Amino acid sequence: MTAASASLAALTPFRLIGHPILLGVRRVGAITLFGLRSLAATLTPPLYLGQLWRQFLAIGFFSLPVTGLTAVFTGAALALNIFSGGGRLNAEQVMPQIVALGITRELGPVLAGLMLAGRVAAAIAAEIGAMRTTEQIDAMVTLSTDPYRYLIAPRLIAAVLALPLLTAVADLIGIAGGWLVAVRTLGFNPVLYVRNTDAFLQAGDIGSGLVKASVFGFVVALMGCYHGYHAAGGARGVGRATTHAVVSASILILACDYLLTAVFARA
Amino acid sequence: MSRARSNGAGEQWAEVLLGFGVIAAAAAFLTYSLSAGGAGRAPDGYEVTAKFGDVGSLAPGSNVSVAGVKVGAVADITLDPASYLAVAHLRIDSKVKLPVDSTAKITSDSLLGGAHVVISPGGAAESLKAGSQIENAQGAVDLFGLIGQFLRPQSGAGSAAAATPADGPADGAAAGGASK
Amino acid sequence: MTGVAKLEWRGVRKSFGGRAVLDDLDLAVAPGRSLVIMGGSGQGKSVTLKLALGLLTPDAGALRIDGRDTASASKSARRRAFADIGVLFQGAALFDSLSVWENVAFRLINADGVPRRKARERAIEALSRVRLPADLADAYPASLSGGMQKRVGLARAIVGRPSLLFFDEPTSGLDPVTSAVINELIVEQVRDLGCTAVSITHDIASARTIADEIAMLQGGRVIWSGSPSELDQTPDPYVRQFVEGRADGPG
């Protein structure tokens, strides 16, 4: 027995590496199982429509201001940069099209997703985490109501529906931001700007951005729900859950963005 | 999320208004883009026409300028069913008077677009009246068509402006081909 | 006890992180009786309750409600079992985003499909049974005192007229007067509903008031059980130490 434990102690450096990896794998597994169970809850009755509507408003409508702000500044800055870069190739005239492409395919969904990761994932994790640490979720179970269907499914569905709509608004406002800067500062013809943009953009540009947005919405809600649902240890636990939710949602969004872009770029 | 009591009622209303404001801004821009008929922007101007063999990428809304100064915009572009020429309706600022022998030419800012109409004023004493036509018009230079015509023989069905320089080599090539 | 126990733990074992919290627990409650489970902090009282509620599953042993094993029950059987159970949690566990009446009527609206108007009526009736006025119905839990929150929690537990009621530390954090009110309400409701009650507490005065039978947990198992009057007479040293609240002794 002693010989075995002695050799195990000698292997500690390897365990220091292996342990967090195992933890990570276990975490991924737990999240996957949670995700599957949540998906099942969205697809089977009962569906709490009142909750769904409330969440849709909270996630979608009330995120409009922050999304609009992000979009207009990004669109304006992008226009200036692309114009300047285009100048090096004598291609300033193409700026409207490039800006529109960048916004609809990439910046619209990703920035809206990241804004929501910070705002919505944190709020969901905090609310569900607080419910978990005050036994409200246990209470719900004893009141014959499945928390997966009452709490989690409405948030998942609301986020998947809301983020594409938010992205559409962000796309419009981002392009408008570029248009404003182009017309006022760069001397573009206002009508021609929108006309060229309109002619250049393809349905796939906007569509791929909206599909990305749906995926991002799912990620944001899932991370918020998972970390909140498994919060433990009072106020500190809720705080930890909130932070983890935001960080994991943000990283997952960026990773999924690359994967989806690779898929869409080939299509 | 329970927003109901975390904010005061006043703050809530502000958020709702802000949300609607953002949607309104986006919708306004969308409507503007789709209509893009902002060419009638100078309602106090007068309209003249010019016929071109090829308008290139000229579109309603494109600028009309004299000596580099914008004096109006293209209101509409239609096709003359009799002569198969493109008719550009130009709306000119009412403060600008154009001599009847002015020339209208379509040029581009760069290879990538930005087509607009440049009017070179003539020396006549009489000015163009609303609804009249600019007689001298030179259409857009179809650069790629020109290059193509040098590279490939064509039966001369190019633009009116491109027909002259391209005639020689095209005829020669066609003659060379026909003699086979 | 004759007949089938309403609720029983048989040979239940439960460990957390290698530490055995419950070790061969044997306990039963007869229908219509009120059992109070007592014991020092960390002796496994909450775990015992959570196992009975199905919020935790035992590592070994069986949990039976009305003679039917809960662990092996089908989902629909478990759902039906929950329909007949009411729980008052330690902090009342009210839903802070819902009003008082929406809390009380939560089960009715979301699980039983009762229309909102009818559910509100039944909620107000339940509130009156715990002596809370109807004008509290639209208030929110955050604006209520601890004692009132517990009463709302009690109303929420009894609104479905359950046959099995659970109380997790019903008097914790309450002043003596409010505690007495809660105890009285518990006794009243258990009697009116004719239901079986299981409580966990370390408040001896509360236990004496609400219990038909007391079971003492120590070391993960029941070391003593009997009526409240027997509690005062038993020579068991651990029980004596607990009842008299002494720092020295086996506990």
What does this structure look like?
The complex is a heterotrimer of chains A (about 270), B (about 180) and C (about 250). By secondary structure, chain A is mostly helical. Chain A has one domain (about 65-265). Chain A is built from ten helices and no strands. Chain A has helices at about 1-10, 10-45, 50-60, 65-90, 95-135, 135-140, 145-185, 190-200, 205-230, 235-265. Chain A is globular. The termini of chain A are far apart. The mean pLDDT of chain A is about 90. Chain B is an alpha/beta fold and about 180 residues long. Chain B folds into three domains: about 1-35; about 40-140; about 145-170, no CATH class. Helix content of chain B is about 30%, strand content about 25%. In chain B, helix 2 runs parallel beside helix 3 (about 160-180). The longest helix of chain B has 27 residues, at about 10-35. The N and C termini of chain B lie far apart (about 85 Å). Chain C is of the alpha/beta class and about 250 residues long. Chain C has a domain at about 100-160. Chain C is about 35% helix and about 25% strand. Chain C has ten helices and ten strands. A six-stranded mixed sheet of chain C has the order 6-7-8-3-9-10, sandwiched between helices. Chain C has a four-stranded antiparallel sheet with strand order 2-1-4-5, covered by helices on one side. In chain C, helix 5 (about 115-130) packs across helix 6 and helix 6 packs parallel to helix 7 (about 175-195). Chain C is globular. The two termini of chain C are about 30 Å apart. Chains in contact: A-B, A-C, B-C. The interface of A and B includes residues 54 and 59 of A.
Describe, in short, the structure shown.
The complex is a heterotrimer of chains A (267), B (180) and C (251). Chain A has 267 residues and is mostly helical.
Question: So what's the oligomer here?
Answer: heterotrimer
Count of helices of chain B? 3
Percent helix among the residues of chain B? Answer: 25-40%
The biggest beta sheet of chain A is recorded as: none
Biggest sheet strand order of chain B reads 7-1-4-3-2-6-5-8
Domains counted in the coordinates of chain A: how many?
1
Number of domains of chain B: 3
Secondary-structure element order of chain B, N to C: HEEEEEEEEHH
Shape of chain A: globular
Give average pLDDT of chain A, whole number: 91
Strand content of chain B: 15-25%
Note the run of SSEs of chain A as H and E.
HHHHHHHHHH
Summing up helix and strand content along with how strands pair, one would put the structural category of chain A as: mainly alpha
The major beta sheet of chain B can be summarized as: 8 strands, mixed
Query: What percent of residues of chain A adopt helix (DSSP H or I)?
Result: over 70%
Beta strands of chain B, count: 8
Q: What is the CA-CA span between the terminal residues of chain A?
A: 60 Å
Tell me the greatest interface. A-B, 34 and 33 residues
The radius of gyration over CA of chain A amounts to 23 Å
